[in-house]
Each structure stands twice: as structure tokens, then as C-alpha cells.
Amino acid sequence: MRKLTYYISQSIDGFIAAPDGGFEHLMPFVDVHKWIVAEYPETLPAFIHEAMGVDGPPRVFDTVIMGRATYEPGVEAGHVSPYPHLRQYVVTSTITESLSPDVTLVAGDPLETVRALKAEDGDMGIWLAGGATLAGALFDEIDELVLKTYPIISRSGIPLFYGDFEPRRFTPKETLRFDDGGSVTRYVRT
Predict the structure, then answer these.
(1) Peptide bond preceding 181: is omega within 30 degrees of 0, i.e. cis?
(2) Mean pLDDT (whole number) for 124-140
(3) Distance between CA atoms of 120 and 98, rounded to whole angstroms?
(4) What pTM was estimated for this model as a whole?
(5) Which residues are CB-neighbours of 189 under 8 A, at least 6 positions away?
(6) What is the mean pLDDT of the chain?
(7) Which among 48, 66, 71, 142 could disulfide-bond with 129, CB atoms 3.0 to 4.6 Å apart, if both were Cys?
């Protein structure tokens, strides 16, 4: 069975974006970006692949699922298919017609969609790109977390998850620390 990985950036106090959804404050860390290019290049949007030296097929994921708020900043910048090298799903109740034939809209229950994707044959993973509302809705299906943590305290913003209090244990499998203060930790569901 394929696994769903919540692969996301966060501040050290657990926020994935500013209150307005911006995430520029989590971007200036060169060492982590070099690691992303080497290990998870498919998670970079296609329009920056050439500038980042990304070429070749996906390594870890062949599918991305994201919420509307995660998708819309790219649309506003003219990128209606940010990851054409992956199967793209956008969970939304407000966008009623796909802006690209490469993007599948999910208007119903995202759990049903993710369970169907996980049941498919293959060993490539499914990337949950965000955001907090979708991560909360898919909480029971998340098999792994890959948290890119930056040495910034946000104090408020969009948290890693929205949802009810429901503690769930994950086991840390590896942590990489970078000279610029960033780190990446991979957790699996216990």
C-alpha cells in the first residue's frame, strides 16, 4: 500500500504559514533548499526546476494533494499547474472548474480520495502539501511526517494541523541538521 506523507515546512513553534497564508519567512535557508533539490526535487514547482538544477523523474512522490489555500498563491502568480510532473489533486469546495487539465479537483470527502490513491499499485508516495485544514481532515491517513523546521519563531499563523485535540504518537526515524540552522525530521506513525 502506498503511503501518505505530510511533507511541509514549519517554524520552530509549529506554524506552516503567516496568518495571511504567506510563507516567505520560511524560505531563506540555503542548506535545506540544497537538500530538497537532492532528496525531494519533485516537491519544487516546475517553474523553478531549471533555476534550481532539477531534472529527471520524481524520486519519492508521484502524486500531490493540497488544499485550495495552498494551491491559490500559485494560481495568482499564473501557475495553474504547479507540479505537472506529478498527479495533482486540489481539495476545494469553492473552485468548481479546474484551471488546468493536469489538476483534479476534489469537492467531496478527501479521505475517500486518499484511501483510493493509497490502494493503488506502486511504491511511489503521495505528498500531502498542505494546509492545516486538509491535514486535519486526513489525520487518520497520514503515515509519515517530514518536517522541515526553520529557526524562526512565528508566534501566530497557520498551525501544522487544524482539528480537535486527539494525541497520536509518531516515532522519529531520522533528523538532519544544517549549518544555517534548519533541520529535517522524518517521523512515522507509531
Answers:
(1) no
(2) 97
(3) 23
(4) 0.96
(5) 142, 143, 144, 168, 169, 170, 171
(6) 96
(7) 66
